[in-house]
Design goal:
It is a single chain. The chain is elongated. It contains 8 helices and 3 strands, in the order H-H-H-E-H-E-E-H-H-H-H. It starts with a helix and ends with a helix. With 233 residues, the protein is mainly α. Helix 2 runs antiparallel to helix 3, helix 2 runs parallel beside helix 5 and helix 6 runs antiparallel to helix 7.
Length: 233
Amino acid sequence: MPSYVSWVESELEWFADMFSRQVFPQGSVVGHGVAGECVAIALKHADQLSMNGLDISFLMHRLLQPGISETLKRNHIQIMEASQLRAKEEHWKKCEFNRQTGDIKKLDDLLKTYNVDLSKYCVSTGDDKIYVTLCHSVISFVRSFHSYLLDAKKMYNTRVRKQLIDSITSCLQFQAFQLKLAPPDEDIRTVVSSSDMFMNKEFIPAVITFLETQVTQQPVPQIRNILDTNDIL
């Protein structure tokens, strides 16, 4: 039996090494969703072996841990850099969508994941155009952050809990804070106020619920503190 266990560990270490080289390549950013999906498939097969009497899930998690942690770190940096760039380019105007492109439906479907109703922020002109009273940086952030969060959910384990919560907190804090830096111009006040209300009353609370019910299975007071310290504009 000891030799059999030793062989299993050796084979699993070889697999984890090959897996990590392909899924967690050093010096490059894997597209959101790719790493998470690969990890989810690997862990699913590990669970299947566990049901047949060979429990390798714990060892699998441990061997993949460095790659998961590094991927979360790289993806976090990518989101923060993109958010900083969008903040510099922000014009504080409502976003225009064309019904025929389907982009507005994709955004609506994305927000439904968090039980957020996009329609309350939409203004229809009667033609093919729909205006959303949210600034460009907020909409772009929601899209990229959603991909990051779904990827993180698939890779999540208790070893990366603190890293993930710290990462999510800094992303949400940065985006919420950018709205406080908007120029005090009256002609952009509607979009800024609407965006601020969306982040603090809709999106951040929805992310907290998503994390607590579908990812960590535990309270995330660190993220809740964002709402306590962030006054609505």
